[in-house]
């Protein structure tokens, strides 16, 4: 697989860019080719995904590895092909897409071109919990004392960190003992 291509932007059109790498022009399909227009005089790096099928051999390009990896995850969803994956990435920000999948927001996902209710549901089923590396990390306020001990206990009980993070704001509202925090947390988690 070709990890990336580094070269000069030779041509930009609505579907693709052509990157000149030592005299060879690579046609690379991208979500938004016009982001490369400003880079015509400078060397650019395009992270690529090589798509090979019986009748197709194409390069898809992205500004970042994360965007490229998200595209690869989208291709794993039944009903989404390369054109659909590009359309989804072109129509929204990757962090919004990840958030919609994690929150099971079908209405938001249906706004993307070519995504109906069935495909939105399939995206949620196939990708929920697998895209946390693509979401922007939010700085968490420090937890100390009894609440920190309760969080450690919840993790030991097998609860995922993202589940625990959702209930922490509700737990911060009161000052309790470690045992009381655990009981309150379990009640919130079981809702």
From TrEMBL:
InterPro entries xrefs: DNA_helicase_Holl-junc_RuvA_I (IPR013849), Hlx-hairpin-Hlx_DNA-bd_motif (IPR003583), NA-bd_OB-fold (IPR012340), RuvA (IPR000085), RuvA_2-like (IPR010994), RuvA_C (IPR011114), RuvA_C_sf (IPR036267)
Chain residue ranges for the region called Domain III: 146-191
Helix-hairpin-helix DNA-binding motif class domain boundaries: 72-91, 107-126
GO cellular component terms, semicolon-separated: cytoplasm; Holliday junction helicase complex; Holliday junction resolvase complex
Pfam families according to UniProt: HHH_5 (PF14520), RuvA_C (PF07499), RuvA_N (PF01330)
GO molecular function: ATP binding; four-way junction DNA binding; four-way junction helicase activity
Record bears the keyword Lipid metabolism: no
Subcellular location: Cytoplasm
GO biological process terms held by the UniProt record: DNA recombination; DNA repair
Keyword list, A-Z: ATP-binding, Cytoplasm, DNA damage, DNA recombination, DNA repair, DNA-binding, Helicase, Hydrolase, Nucleotide-binding
Keyword Cytoplasm included in the entry's annotation: yes
Described function: The RuvA-RuvB-RuvC complex processes Holliday junction (HJ) DNA during genetic recombination and DNA repair, while the RuvA-RuvB complex plays an important role in the rescue of blocked DNA replication forks via replication fork reversal (RFR). RuvA specifically binds to HJ cruciform DNA, conferring on it an open structure. The RuvB hexamer acts as an ATP-dependent pump, pulling dsDNA into and through the RuvAB complex. HJ branch migration allows RuvC to scan DNA until it finds its consensus sequence, where it cleaves and resolves the cruciform DNA.
Subunit structure: Homotetramer. Forms an RuvA(8)-RuvB(12)-Holliday junction (HJ) complex. HJ DNA is sandwiched between 2 RuvA tetramers; dsDNA enters through RuvA and exits via RuvB. An RuvB hexamer assembles on each DNA strand where it exits the tetramer. Each RuvB hexamer is contacted by two RuvA subunits (via domain III) on 2 adjacent RuvB subunits; this complex drives branch migration. In the full resolvosome a probable DNA-RuvA(4)-RuvB(12)-RuvC(2) complex forms which resolves the HJ.
Family: Belongs to the RuvA family.
Domain notes: Has three domains with a flexible linker between the domains II and III and assumes an 'L' shape. Domain III is highly mobile and contacts RuvB.
Protein's name according to its UniProt entry: Holliday junction branch migration complex subunit RuvA
UniProt source species: Geobacillus genomosp. 3
Lineage: Bacteria, Bacillati, Bacillota, Bacilli, Bacillales
């Amino acid at each position: 697989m070709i990890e990336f291509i580094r070269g000069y932007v030779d041509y930009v059109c609505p579907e693709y860019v052509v990157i000149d790498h030592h005299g060879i022009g690579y046609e690379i399909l991208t979500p938004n080719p016009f982001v490369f227009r400003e880079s015509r005089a400078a060397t650019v790096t395009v992270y690529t995904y090589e798509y090979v099928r019986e009748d197709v051999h194409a390069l898809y390009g992205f500004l970042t590895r994360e965007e490229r990896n998200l595209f690869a995850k989208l291709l794993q969803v039944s009903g989404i092909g390369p054109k659909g994956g590009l359309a989804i990435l072109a129509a929204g920000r990757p962090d919004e897409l990840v958030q919609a999948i994690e929150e099971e927001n079908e209405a938001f996902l249906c706004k993307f071109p070519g995504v109906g209710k069935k495909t939105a549901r399939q995206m949620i089923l196939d990708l929920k919990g697998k895209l946390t590396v693509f979401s922007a990390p939010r700085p968490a306020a420090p937890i100390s004392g009894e609440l920190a001990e309760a969080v450690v206990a919840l993790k030991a009980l097998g609860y995922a960190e993202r589940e625990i993070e959702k209930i922490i704001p509700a737990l911060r509202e009161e000052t309790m003992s470690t045992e009381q925090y655990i009981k309150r947390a379990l009640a919130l988690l079981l809702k």
